[in-house]
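Question:
When you can, review this sequence-structure pair and walk me through the tokens.
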Amino acid sequence: MLGVVRGAMAPPSVWRGAWHSVRRAGAWRAYASGHGLEPMPLPCVDQHELRERQLRAERQQGVPPQNESTQPALGMGPEPAYQKVVSGYKTFRYPHRYALDYGGALPGFQIAYETWGTLNEARDNAILLHTGLSASSHAASTPSNPAKGWWEDFIGPGKALDTNRFFVICTNVLGSCFGSTGPSSVCPVLGEPYATRFPILSIFDMVRAQFLLLDDLGIDRLYASIGSSMGGMQSIAATHLFPERVQRMASISGTARSSPSGIALRYSQRSVLMADPNWNRGFYYGPDQMPPHTGMKLARQIATITYRSGPEWEQRFGRMRRTLNRDLAVAEARVPALCPDFLVETYLDHQGEQFCLKYDANSLIYISKSMDLFDMSDDALAQLGETRMLAHGDDGRLPIPADEDGVEEGGAPFASDKRHRKHITTISNPGAHHYVPSLARGLSRLRRTPSLIIGVQSDILFPVEQQRELAECLRMNGNASVMYYEMDAPHGHDSFLYVFFFR
């Protein structure tokens, strides 16, 4: 009651002050209503709050999160199908302790994989296809899973990866959530999900697990190792670790060394994800706990910006605004909204919504970190080898810095000066970055492997300069079988989903 203060009647001055406050509030509401000063409707916030309530109710009832987008598809150009793969793959199980580069170990693991084509009698026509960060093993449709895969247009009879000729293998990487062992997997020792008890992974750890699968399949030599984005890193690592087993190597929009800009972009994704209270330091797998869907949505929006390019945004969306009808004149005349208003905003919102419950948040954190750590420079490889040696001893799986007959210190045709950090601008200037001699030496084990390097001019995540640099470092080691191409495609980093060629 307005007039009661600590159980006693308030003095007249308090009464008068309270009454005037009520009158002012009423007058303000009336004024606001008549002058358009009401709080702005925020349907995007309402939708998010509704999702939160629905998810919480479902979790309390023991219903797992549904992986369906609440946003309609925009139909604004080609988009790769992204399905949560729950069936249709084979599983390779490794029941032994698996030592990892950064000191941790798994009591065992499993790898999900799919195959296309037929392994020939000589068992030498196998192609190992490496995936990007969030992709599954489902690169193309199969009888057991007819849904289109993320590389559907390039795998099959008469296609780039011709299944009339080749036996194509694609794995879901270690650390992921689509059938392979990762943070969401149940630890056989603990009897509950690893969460952030899962050890740090390296790209080399992922590749060694893939080659254990190849051993199980009886494949001693690959016709080719091919990968895009993070898959390019894996393809390089595979050829470095097993040069005698990889006959050809292809890296598309990949890199031999994560750049500071790429590290910064992935860090920002992890930061917004880990700031979600539902992340709970990675322990969100309980039946009454919420997945960090808000952080995942925002992380996916950041990632989508890095996967695309300014020219594609302009080409696909321009400055067009969202409309509920076909009258564009009305759309241009309407009052702007704080929720998704421009078509590019609705696109990002849709991408975040349709992804945030399909992929495990901890897998995103761990795998993106492994990308940051990837560095083929010989000094970085030597340091990683020392870390592994201290943790596990010489177990035969050490990262190898360089061959004895590789490029030696002082033998490179250019000077190394770590004091200068000039920007590399052309393929004819390989020595512009101080680390290039070290990177060339680290890549020396690839000098006899025919290599295809493809970059995309509009790529902002793995800039084309990194592809030029990789090609030049391979050539500096005496590799005369390096083919380098640049794609003039507007799709940015994701151009490899639409344009590809292989010889």
In short: The first strand starts at residue 4 and ends at 5. The domain at 263-373 is CATH 1.10.1740.110 (Rna Polymerase Sigma Factor; Chain: A).
